[in-house]
């Protein structure tokens, strides 16, 4: 099946759905509904949280990964303002006596690291495959797009769970502290590449038959160099939108996996791990252990989602 | 005696009077009930579930004393020959009679390949039928605690098992379950009505039970609920009549909630840490070419670096008893003579420096995260305590299935530093010495749960003496001697006996046994 | 039309074949099955005999076809943990997961479509703003956290709804027990279904809203209005109909992720479905269950995809002739 015999194949159906998905988010959602002030606020929040996470070692009062700094005797101290609170611990401590504020900052670092790394992995993989698929066409295209289709069978969570299970099956007892982040990055990233590939492929197909490419071919310049030069700028917008939405999704996926117990270990907690730990204390009145990391996660994801929405609108000329 | 019968009769009348209120008990546990084959798995929960359906020659009362069950009485007719008189008129659920053939059959089966309960009866013991209701056990040597673990040895029906082609035990590693692992046929107070592993198991009452009924249930329904929060929530909202374990942090809430209360008590299980002392180089450490744990100073330094009282206060919320021994004080009369090494990080640092590790070292720690009360949290706290004396712990906390597969004999004792909990099935120190402290080979034959391979021939010698000593006082003295050596050697770091915490609806009364067995025969709706 | 359908079916078969291959490789090469079955004391000879008996020494291709042949007959081997045929285990849990997925999809559609239409038509009303804000927050809160909050609120604090399990189930067929026929079963499904369906509902709502906004701008709606057709008929017959194509696509595609998200929901609510089974299998490296689950979800997804494609043709007649849209 080649690209010049278009049928309503699964890939195109999904492509159509993507564009439909894009279309509904392309609406003037943010202009009509949320004033642009909110976008600004979202941008500031995202940036602030990212900087705070990046500079966590400078900002955070404690290093929660340094076990020598943790004292179990400080376990479960409530946040400032409540009875029994301790001025050293603004948001209280968790069950191990870890300062929650520091835990959240460092946890966000892991969440964001996994998020960015997996999105980067997915984008590089997806863009490369999309270019190859669109440019080479024919059988290669068909194979890549079929793989994409199989890939779609596995939502991120399922894929990540499977990869985790396979990894511990193959490597026996892996050292989680070292490998968890990479397994997470790989499995989350692997489940996101299809969107990039389809976007880039579509754009490549359009460019491929344009005259300048043909001309380049005639004068002997490797056409793919030109392709990359012309296609990439064209798809930058959509790729950025996909990446932003994916970032939010990746953060949630990481948190979910850590909550299910296959993410990062509890000695190096991410936001999801913190919520999993805190979940055990929700009923006993020590709500802050789960709620603060939960809020941090929700605010981060919400801000990124808002930015993503806004990007969609801003980059879609149809709406202006 | 007459009084007892009268009160029993009264109890029966009362029970009959409340029959109208009697209901189906809904209860939940954190783990799943997988196989019904009673010899498949030596695990307290499965054994307690089997105990509702199957019965044993002798059983334990609510306060864990040995009492007659399918055997009415027994006597030691020669030092190495025990005679058991069987109860007459007992029927299995399928109507078959219980007799000596069933005992002999069960004795063979429980020691056959695939059985996880081989320790209840030594392979060298011969079992002889005297008549239909008398059985002799001929021992290779004197053993005063022959029947101490028999509560875990359910008697199966020979005819039923053979007719259903289930003589071979479905072992823990078998993939083809036989009839007996999906169906049950015991003599006990309850029958299995349905069994879906991992989903639900239902019981109905055995109306023709030989013993007098102490419960007023019409049936019971078991659901495994792995998530702590969900299990507690289900109890609080009244969907369950009983749930266990209750996480220590939720005990207060369960107590404060109208309609439920928490039942807590000391458990017999001791939680401890162990070191690999057998390998010449630790598998998971940055120290190469030697094994720091072979040095008693290092082991003692680890011991003194850990503050068990802080663990008790902050992680166990008071529901644990720091322990100097690997056995609960309830099970050993002389435990008062022993005390823990004090918590002293400075002394620990000094010991490490003396041993040549002034800058500490790195080692991985294996820990289950769904087996013991707050197991992972305790391991994390341990890592934090050790960090302060310069030891870097890489914590590897895993679900129990993976954890056990790694650290036990079947995984080649693949660990350098680990956490384990142990309840002696016989409620006796011999079990501790034999399983945890005798020298072992690479396969672990002589001392299968001595994961670290601690070895002191003097302890082995004493263990043998303990087994054949009939005089209680002399026996305890021998045990004390062994424990003193073990403590001086710091073979393990005993942490504490964890507490039991059950959540019970105010509608029912239950009996909590210190071995954490929840038995339906004690349950009553008010 | 016929060519289109047969092409789609052929492609579905290719996808299934690839998934089966992955599943087989998983089953066969991840975690030596023999090691999982025997203890450490088993001698090499016994192991070899077992390998022979299990056919693990045959050519890989033979094994693969045997695996596929088994899978076609629902024979996926035995679970390492439960010592039972995987097909039985999954079969017993399938109804729970399917009922949960079904209930959550119904919830998502029944609420998502009207909310989408409303917010599409009344762009600036305060209710629309509430719907949209809530939907954005709903997308940003992880499913497990929502589930926990629901239990905390509705089961523990208010004690309105059960927090775990399926309630009472009724056996309506040898392989199907349903919770839809009892009061406790219906009550039990509410919280998990809402938790699971919330994300999909949000998606559908936002999708319909965007489609409505777009469709309302198109010429034929303007014509319809100009022709004096009543608003109601314009909105619901002409406009909504035109939004249905993307909605069906998205809903269909989302069914796949509903099954995946069911893993989380089932864990939080202890819903005795396939998701929990799968999670336990991952945690315990129970490869036969993982492999079978993989095959099954892929199968369900492919079938749904196929149905979506066919519905597509039915709803949008243009596709029958145009054979595609880029």
UniProtKB/TrEMBL annotation, chain A:
<keyword id="KW-0812">Transmembrane</keyword>
<comment type="similarity">
    <text>Belongs to the binding-protein-dependent transport system permease family.</text>
</comment>
<feature type="transmembrane region" description="Helical">
    <location>
        <begin position="179"/>
        <end position="197"/>
    </location>
</feature>
<dbReference type="Pfam" id="PF00528">
    <property type="entry name" value="BPD_transp_1"/>
</dbReference>
<feature type="transmembrane region" description="Helical">
    <location>
        <begin position="152"/>
        <end position="172"/>
    </location>
</feature>
<keyword id="KW-1003">Cell membrane</keyword>
<keyword id="KW-1133">Transmembrane helix</keyword>
<dbReference type="InterPro" id="IPR000515">
    <property type="entry name" value="MetI-like"/>
</dbReference>
<keyword id="KW-0813">Transport</keyword>
<dbReference type="InterPro" id="IPR050366">
    <property type="entry name" value="BP-dependent_transpt_permease"/>
</dbReference>
<dbReference type="InterPro" id="IPR035906">
    <property type="entry name" value="MetI-like_sf"/>
</dbReference>
<feature type="transmembrane region" description="Helical">
    <location>
        <begin position="239"/>
        <end position="262"/>
    </location>
</feature>
<feature type="transmembrane region" description="Helical">
    <location>
        <begin position="38"/>
        <end position="60"/>
    </location>
</feature>
<feature type="domain" description="ABC transmembrane type-1">
    <location>
        <begin position="108"/>
        <end position="308"/>
    </location>
</feature>
<protein>
    <submittedName>
        <fullName>ABC transporter permease</fullName>
    </submittedName>
</protein>
Automatic annotation (TrEMBL), chain B:
<dbReference type="InterPro" id="IPR000914">
    <property type="entry name" value="SBP_5_dom"/>
</dbReference>
<protein>
    <submittedName>
        <fullName>ABC transporter substrate-binding protein</fullName>
    </submittedName>
</protein>
<dbReference type="InterPro" id="IPR030678">
    <property type="entry name" value="Peptide/Ni-bd"/>
</dbReference>
<comment type="similarity">
    <text>Belongs to the bacterial solute-binding protein 5 family.</text>
</comment>
<dbReference type="Pfam" id="PF00496">
    <property type="entry name" value="SBP_bac_5"/>
</dbReference>
<keyword id="KW-0732">Signal</keyword>
<feature type="signal peptide">
    <location>
        <begin position="1"/>
        <end position="22"/>
    </location>
</feature>
<keyword id="KW-0813">Transport</keyword>
<dbReference type="InterPro" id="IPR039424">
    <property type="entry name" value="SBP_5"/>
</dbReference>
<feature type="domain" description="Solute-binding protein family 5">
    <location>
        <begin position="65"/>
        <end position="442"/>
    </location>
</feature>
Automatic annotation (TrEMBL), chain C:
<dbReference type="InterPro" id="IPR000515">
    <property type="entry name" value="MetI-like"/>
</dbReference>
<dbReference type="InterPro" id="IPR045621">
    <property type="entry name" value="BPD_transp_1_N"/>
</dbReference>
<feature type="transmembrane region" description="Helical">
    <location>
        <begin position="247"/>
        <end position="271"/>
    </location>
</feature>
<feature type="transmembrane region" description="Helical">
    <location>
        <begin position="130"/>
        <end position="158"/>
    </location>
</feature>
<keyword id="KW-0472">Membrane</keyword>
<keyword id="KW-1003">Cell membrane</keyword>
<keyword id="KW-0812">Transmembrane</keyword>
<protein>
    <submittedName>
        <fullName>ABC transporter permease</fullName>
    </submittedName>
</protein>
<keyword id="KW-1133">Transmembrane helix</keyword>
<feature type="transmembrane region" description="Helical">
    <location>
        <begin position="9"/>
        <end position="30"/>
    </location>
</feature>
<feature type="transmembrane region" description="Helical">
    <location>
        <begin position="100"/>
        <end position="118"/>
    </location>
</feature>
<dbReference type="InterPro" id="IPR035906">
    <property type="entry name" value="MetI-like_sf"/>
</dbReference>
<feature type="transmembrane region" description="Helical">
    <location>
        <begin position="291"/>
        <end position="315"/>
    </location>
</feature>
<dbReference type="Pfam" id="PF19300">
    <property type="entry name" value="BPD_transp_1_N"/>
</dbReference>
<keyword id="KW-0813">Transport</keyword>
């Amino acid at each position: 099946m080649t690209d010049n015999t278009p049928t309503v194949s699964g890939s195109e159906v999904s492509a159509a759905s993507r564009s439909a998905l894009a279309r509904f988010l392309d609406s003037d959602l943010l202009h009509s509904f949320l004033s642009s002030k909110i976008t600004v606020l979202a941008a500031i929040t995202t940036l602030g949280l990212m900087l705070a996470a990046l500079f966590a070692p400078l900002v955070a009062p404690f290093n929660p990964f340094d076990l020598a700094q943790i004292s179990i005797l400080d376990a479960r101290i409530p946040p400032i303002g409540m009875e029994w609170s301790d001025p050293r611990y603004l948001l209280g401590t968790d069950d191990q006596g870890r300062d929650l504020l520091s835990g959240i900052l460092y946890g966000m670092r892991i969440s964001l690291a996994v998020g960015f790394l997996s999105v980067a992995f997915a984008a590089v993989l997806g863009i490369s495959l999309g270019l190859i698929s669109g440019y080479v066409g024919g059988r290669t295209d068909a194979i890549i797009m079929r793989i994409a289709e199989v890939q779609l069978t596995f939502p991120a969570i399922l894929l990540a769970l499977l990869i985790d299970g396979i990894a511990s099956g193959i490597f026996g007892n892996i050292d989680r502290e070292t490998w968890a982040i990479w397994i997470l990055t790989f499995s989350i990233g692997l489940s996101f590449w299809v969107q990039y590939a389809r976007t880039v492929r579509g754009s490549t197909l359009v460019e491929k038959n344009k005259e300048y490419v043909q001309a380049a071919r005639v004068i002997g310049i490797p056409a793919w160099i030109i392709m990359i030069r012309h296609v990439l700028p064209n798809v930058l917008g959509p790729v950025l939108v996909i990446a932003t939405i994916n970032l939010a999704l990746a953060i949630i996926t990481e948190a979910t996996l850590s909550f299910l117990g296959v993410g990062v270990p509890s000695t190096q907690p991410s936001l999801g791990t913190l919520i999993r730990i805190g979940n055990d204390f929700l009923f006993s009145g020590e709500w802050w252990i789960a709620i603060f990391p939960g809020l941090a996660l929700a605010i981060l994801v919400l801000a990124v989602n808002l930015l993503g929405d806004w990007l969609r609108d801003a980059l879609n000329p149809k709406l202006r | 005696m007459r009084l007892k019968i009268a009160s029993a009769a009264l109890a029966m009348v009362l029970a009959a009077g409340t029959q109208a209120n009697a209901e189906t008990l809904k209860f939940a546990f954190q783990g799943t009930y997988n196989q019904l084959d009673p010899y498949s798995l030596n695990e307290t929960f499965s054994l307690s579930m089997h105990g509702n359906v199957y019965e044993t020659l002798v059983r334990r009362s609510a306060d864990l004393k040995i009492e007659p069950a399918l055997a009415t009485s027994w006597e030691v007719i020669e030092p190495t020959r025990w005679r058991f008189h069987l109860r007459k008129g007992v029927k299995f659920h399928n109507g078959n009679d219980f007799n000596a053939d069933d005992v002999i059959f069960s004795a063979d089966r429980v020691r056959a390949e695939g059985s996880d309960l081989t320790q209840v009866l030594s392979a060298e013991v011969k079992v002889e039928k005297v008549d239909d209701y008398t059985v002799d056990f001929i021992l290779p040597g004197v053993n005063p605690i022959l029947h101490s673990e028999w509560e875990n040895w359910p008697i199966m029906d020979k005819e039923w098992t053979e007719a259903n082609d289930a003589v071979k035990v479905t072992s823990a590693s078998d993939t083809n379950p036989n009839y007996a692992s999906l169906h049950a046929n015991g003599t006990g107070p309850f029958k299995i009505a349905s069994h879906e592993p991992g989903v639900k198991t239902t019981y109905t009452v055995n109306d023709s039970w030989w013993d007098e009924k102490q419960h007023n249930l019409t049936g019971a329904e078991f659901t495994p609920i792995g998530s702590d929060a969900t299990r507690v929530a289900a109890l609080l909202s009244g969907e369950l009549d009983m749930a266990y374990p209750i996480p220590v942090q939720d005990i207060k809430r369960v107590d404060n909630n109208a309609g439920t209360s928490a039942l807590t008590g000391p458990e017999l299980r001791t939680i401890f840490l162990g070191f690999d002392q057998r390998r010449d180089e630790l598998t998971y450490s940055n120290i190469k070419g030697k094994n720091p744990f072979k040095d008693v100073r290092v082991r003692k330094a680890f011991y003194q670096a850990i503050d068990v009282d802080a663990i008790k206060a902050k992680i166990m919320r008071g529901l644990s008893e720091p322990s100097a021994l690997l056995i609960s004080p309830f099970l050993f009369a002389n435990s008062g003579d022993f005390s823990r090494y004090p918590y002293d990080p400075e002394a620990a640092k000094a010991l490490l420096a003396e041993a040549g590790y002034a800058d500490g070292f790195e080692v991985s720690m294996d820990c289950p995260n769904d087996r013991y009360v707050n197991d992972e949290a305790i391991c994390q706290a341990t890592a934090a305590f050790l960090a302060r004396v310069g030891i870097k712990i890489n914590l590897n906390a895993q679900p129990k299935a993976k954890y056990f597969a790694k650290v036990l004999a079947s995984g080649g004792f693949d660990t350098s530093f680990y956490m384990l909990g142990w309840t002696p099935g016989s409620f006796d120190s011999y079990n501790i010495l034999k399983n945890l402290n005798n020298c072992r080979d690479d396969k672990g034959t002589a001392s299968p749960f001595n994961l670290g391979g601690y070895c002191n021939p003097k302890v082995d010698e004493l263990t043998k003496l303990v087994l054949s000593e009939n005089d209680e006082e002399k026996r305890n003295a021998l045990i004390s001697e062994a424990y003193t050596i073990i403590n001086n050697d710091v073979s393990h770091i005993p942490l504490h006996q964890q507490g039991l915490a059950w959540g019970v609806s105010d509608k029912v009364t239950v009996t909590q046994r210190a071995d954490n067995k929840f038995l339906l025969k004690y349950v009553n709706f008010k | 039309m016929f060519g289109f359908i047969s092409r789609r079916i052929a492609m579905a078969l290719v996808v299934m074949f690839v998934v089966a291959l992955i599943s087989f490789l998983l089953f066969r090469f991840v975690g030596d099955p023999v090691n999982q079955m025997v203890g450490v004391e088993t001698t090499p000879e016994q192991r070899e005999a077992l390998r022979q008996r299990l056919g693990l020494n045959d050519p890989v291709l033979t094994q693969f076809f045997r695996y596929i042949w088994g899978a076609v007959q629902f024979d996926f081997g035995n679970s390492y943990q439960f010592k039972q045929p995987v097909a039985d285990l999954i079969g017993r849990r399938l109804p729970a997961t399917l009922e949960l997925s079904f209930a959550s999809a119904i919830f998502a559609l029944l609420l998502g479509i009207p909310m989408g239409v409303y917010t599409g038509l009344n762009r600036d009303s305060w209710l629309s703003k509430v719907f949209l804000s809530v939907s954005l927050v709903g997308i940003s809160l992880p499913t497990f956290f929502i589930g926990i909050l629901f239990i905390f609120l509705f089961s523990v604090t208010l004690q309105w709804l059960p927090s775990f399990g399926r309630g009472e189930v009724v056996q309506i067929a040898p392989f199907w027990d349903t919770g839809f026929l009892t009061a406790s079963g219906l009550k039990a499904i509410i919280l998990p279904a809402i938790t699971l369906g919330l994300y999909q509902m949000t998606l559908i709502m936002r999708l319909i809203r965007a489609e409505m906004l777009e469709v309302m701008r198109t010429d034929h709606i303007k014509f319809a209005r100009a022709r004096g057709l009543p608003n109601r008929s314009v909105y619901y017959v002409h406009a909504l109909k035109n939004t249905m194509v993307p909605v069906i696509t998205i809903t269909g595609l989302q069914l796949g992720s509903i099954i995946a998200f069911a893993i989380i929901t089932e864990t939080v609510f202890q819903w005795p479905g396939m998701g929990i089974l799968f999670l336990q299998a991952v945690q315990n490296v129970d490869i036969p269950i993982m492999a079978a689950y993989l095959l099954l979800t892929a199968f369900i997804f492919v079938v749904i995809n196929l149905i979506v494609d066919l519905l597509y043709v039915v709803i949008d007649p243009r596709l029958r002739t145009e054979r595609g849209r880029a």
